[in-house]
């Protein structure tokens, strides 16, 4: 209806339509959708959006309209001057003006403002949003009344924000309580979104029950929508104070982040524990927490900012971006995370159009149903993306079909050779991607592989020339680590400084005897929670700064030389004392043989097992 009204030919010089409905129904959201609808592109020479709010001061409203149309600031206090400039701007031009949140019921005041708007060309339109039918009558406008959402749409909107999914299948307990909470929201979209976002951070059914049973739902004679009051009431105390402080500012006030943080600091709202973060850092965290709860989408006209060079989505829950954002080829886009499948209006394919910079964490990669969608993200050509996390849900048990799909998806998510940091979590495929073994990531310095339980072989990571830090954990399918891990090179892992293995339940042997010249720069080696590991450890290493072994009760080997040893719950180790300066021992069933007397050992710490060892040292 509204689009037809905007685009229809009419003899009227100026036509007015009011969207009428109670607070929280989505009047402003509907007006925004209409304002940015591609079907009205080219219909109007100029467009303007003005938030009016409760106080309808004729001069201020007229000046705001002029400023928005001219994209400048008018400082005159003379109404006649303001109206003259406004008429000059609109004369002969077909315009669209949105007056958002109008409360004025005085017809004389409106007529003064309207007199400056009647000089526009035929087909000019004024779209109004208001809670009051009397306001619409005062403006002699047509009316479009919004109604509450129907029950099925209520649940979909609530679930979209509470479960990260348009079609959730949550725990039945959450499902039942969620339906009751939805009923209390009364079909108001704003209430459903606010409560859904609040519950998104509540991981226990008891938390949901507390919100359902809150007495705030029963408050009567209040201008505040109950669901919004509940949402505010259940904010953490520190955020509640900071959020309430923002109410001192006018509606639609544009906050400067650094300025707001300084104001919070002046009011002593920021709680800094001794020796922890600075007040500025705490304020930044508070700001981001509030932002992540309430910022949902970016302005639809963002693509019109042709001189914009950098755009950051940090700690936000973006579910929609402007459709033409990818046209800004010089725009650098940074986003801390992307939840796959969270929104049908912001898909992984759209990332292919963006010039991504910095760090990006993919979550929920199991939601990719068509692996070609991953290829469309075009990560291989994101040369400014230096840090990448690929993450699937941790608590799933993929079948063979899902494992095959995971393998294709990760292959299609190959990053550029400029990547520096990579983490892969909860991957369900049976083998790691080829691009991790063929030296495609020649600039990677940090790599983490976690909970990839179906993989039976490690990739040839020894070929990565600049890899400095490698962490491998919870790979339950790995039984043996052999020459293929080192890359069969004469100098594998040439830059590696830190190597950590942990929670490798099935790992039995590290075949490192034939590897010559490996790990020339290794300083820290940690092996923990590998209960079946029995075989050798690399012996040809230069003295490590630290060797840490814990909960490896079957391990029997000669330990590499190290300046510091931290040992707990191991089997039998032969230690070279020549360079040893610090030894810590703990746990039970530990047996240690010291090969040479040490003149450098300065510290020995441990349990009772270490006492006879210390005496034997002499």
Automatic annotation (TrEMBL):
Residues 348-474 form the R13L1/DRL21-like LRR repeat region domain. One of its GO terms (molecular function) is ADP binding. Residues 248-297 form the Disease resistance protein winged helix domain. Gene3D superfamilies: Helical domain of apoptotic protease-activating factors, P-loop containing nucleotide triphosphate hydrolases, Ribonuclease Inhibitor. Keywords: Plant defense, Repeat. Residues 2-165 form the NB-ARC domain. One of its GO terms (biological process) is defense response to other organism. It comes from the Eukaryota. This is Putative disease resistance RPP13-like protein 1. It comes from Glycine soja (Wild soybean).
